[in-house]
Amino acid sequence: MTAKIELIGVKKRFGSKVVLDGIDLAIEKGSSLVVIGGSGTGKSVMIKCVLGIITPDEGTILVDGVDVTRLKGAARDPVMRKFGMLFQGAALFDSLPVWENVAFGLIQGRGMKRTQAREVAIQKLAKVGLSEDVAFLSPSELSGGMQKRVGLARAIAADPEIIFFDEPTTGLDPIMADIINDLIISTVRDVGATALSITHDMVSSRKISDRIAMLYNGRIIWQGPTKDIDHSGNEYVDQFIHGRAVGPIKMAVKA
Questions:
Q1: DSSP state of 136
Q2: pLDDT level of residue 123 (50, 70, 90 thresholds)
Q3: Among 32, 127, 133, 170, which one has the highest count of C-beta atoms within 10 angstroms of its own C-beta?
Q4: pLDDT score, position 19
Q5: Nearest to residue 191, comparing CAs of 241, 152, 224?
Q6: 254 pLDDT exceeds 60?
């Protein structure tokens, strides 16, 4: 079966800094994969390579079996329509009301009429537990958890085939984080999407994924079913998932 997304030998460096050093990763259709790893390990760069924001130095990226590694401009548009994304920090436009934030891609990217787009936005807000009156508020009037919900509604506005989640629970208290995790699970299921998440939150990782991969030093050092993460046999994975200061992963700390 053709993977929904596949990265083969993907490399990227910035100057002398090697960020991705040969990533091999496949995400099956309808699955939910979480990539874990510390800050600065290249998780966001990997996603930007898939989205075409960054072009890899080497390697191949396939979406539905089609090589999209170096597609540019209008040639990339059909691929981009397959994606939705929940950004870290929600990344809402302060100058637009909530409904227009949710509908932004429908109006600007797909030319949908504003009245129709507003109806779709209100429907999607309802799916993430927000009432219609919220649609007409400004993002600045919302709590952090509500902003995340709006970001999630925007991510699913066009019923994407693939959804990326960038640190979906960062900055949220444990209860709100768990609510967002539940919403991610239910919305991905409802849309029937393939999900790729990047995070260092192990509670979230365990809950929203069916597979986990760990990125370290530019490579995937372990991947497997979520249920196997506690028995990975990999000392780097074991240190990371238990948050131990002592182990093979050394953090750069200035005295």
A1: G
A2: very high
A3: 32
A4: 94
A5: 152
A6: no
Q: How far is CA 90 from CA 7, 136, 169, 193, in A?
A: 26, 17, 10, 20
- What's the chain's length in residues? 255
Does residue 180 have a pLDDT over 90?
no
CA distance 154 to 33: 21
User: Would you list the DSSP string of 52-79?
Assistant: TSS--SEEEEEETTEE-TT--GGGGHHH
Paired residues of 225 in beta bridges: 211
Take residue 52 and report the two structure tokens written for it: 């075409």
pTM: 0.89
Q: Look at residue 255 and tell me whether its pLDDT is greater than 50.
A: no
Q: How far apart are CA 36 and CA 221, in angstroms?
A: 11
> How would you label 181-216 residue by residue, b for 16+ Cβ within 10 Å and e otherwise?
bebbeebbeebebbbbbbbbbbebbbbbbebbbbbb
Mention every residue, 6+ apart, whose C-beta is less than 8 A from residue 83. 51, 160, 161, 162, 163, 164
Q: Which two tokens stand for residue 127?
A: 């799916």
β-pair partners for 17: 14
Assigned token pair, 196: 């790729």
